[in-house]
Design goal:
Radius of gyration: 21 Å
Helix content: under 10%
Number of strands: 35
Number of helices: 2
Structural class: mainly beta
Strand order of the largest sheet: 1-29-30-31-32
Largest sheet: 5 strands, mixed
Shape: globular
Length: 505
Amino acid sequence: MGAGHHTRLALACAACVLVGACGSNAPAQVSTPTARESAIPDPAVSSTRQLLDWPEFGLDPQRSDSSERATAITAANVAHLRRTTVAVGGTVDSSPIYVHAALVAGAAHNVTVVTTSYGKTVAIDADSGRVLWTFTPPGSRGWAGSSQITTTSPLADPDRRFIYAASPNGLIHKLSLADGSEDRSGAWPASVTRDASHEKLAAALNIDGPDIVVATGGYFGDARPYQGHLVLIDRSSGRVQGVFNTLCANRHRIIVPSSCGASDSAILSRGGPVVEPGGGRILISTGNGPWNGTTNFGDSVLELTFPSLTLRQSFTPVNQDHLSSTDTDFGSSAPALLGGDRVVIAGKDGVMRVLAVSRLDGRSPAGAVGRHHRLGGEVQRLGTPGAGELFTAPAVWRRGASTTVFVADENGTAAYVLRGGRLFRAWQNSKAGTSPVMAGGLLYVYDLAGGGIYVYRPGSPQPIAKLGGASGHWNSPIVVDGHVVEPEGNANDHQLAGTIELFTR
């Protein structure tokens, strides 16, 4: 589905998975191997390289959410940061971005940019908390206060002159970072849906070479019809360069949802499209929807070639039909690249699945174009923290030959290490969180229920500090250039005002 948290159902499904006894299509028993906390290496923060920009959700097109560059925030000073609460014209139920020393109104500013649930994009001076400009999409009065929302995180162009942002009417806007004015040349703003009242812009924007990568999903309650689809938009002209529909996949254009005989299969995860290193392939995951292995790919991980958006290979759980019928979206989280030919994906069933990137379903993708895709083929199944629904994006920290993955869900936070192509849990606690961020040697996890951010050393489940703030939903912080930026609030409350928290060294 698009966004709902059906906790009791998901926990029941997770329990079925753990005992492997809830129907013929339930997966085999889940086992979570463990490792010592000492398996997590000590971070080595760069003394010469600083993390100055955070241009998109997850920091990079691979959505790693981690950096060893110095942030100017340390274990010694994190509890003493200066806090500023900034009022914005709506709820920022997503993640901010940040550009160091950007030229705005003729002067250099350290700028954080956010997009609200009704499509206002706001640039804020991260040092003072002063709003520098606000872009309000034309026609916003028509959906403000309604259930037609967006939770899409914006994206900064590599040239540092433009920001790309979504609005609930299905448009992607190209805005001047200097003043917030909209570029309307060429095909800008670009439309990515033929029915914005049913197809929601939820996942974060991404970038692959010359193109912006956009994904669509569905709204709370799965109001049909809609199809999750991927759209490539040329950054220069705004023209649509490619489309992949996860349902009616034989149609290679943006379609009217009612014209497809299948519905749903949302691309709803926070990370949305994940660009593999080198930019030649893109991974996406889908939620509830029909699957036939040829044209319909609900509850699947799909690897697409770039820029043709040809389906190269896929993975679909053997209990796909059960997941779809019980509203247990497999694709509520995006694939996380671990390196070493491994990717991990988790969903609302409380199960993390480790896949081989070279063989998502256990067989070679050679000759896969046009063939019938099959079910199953994962390398490992293990539990999420507390078997909770997972709507968050893991943070993947790679240090030398070591890979550590930090995962948070509604029941807890945990750290896993990669050994021999499998994940081992090194620590776990009962503190819920959204998408973790590993930056400058510290781990940051937003507490969606209680508000604020837990700060950890990566090798320990005990927080060393907690930054203040209000509760939220899918919001996640960024940590960069001496600042922690924390959105808060829940887009499903349909508020027209909201706040973000700035913590400054």
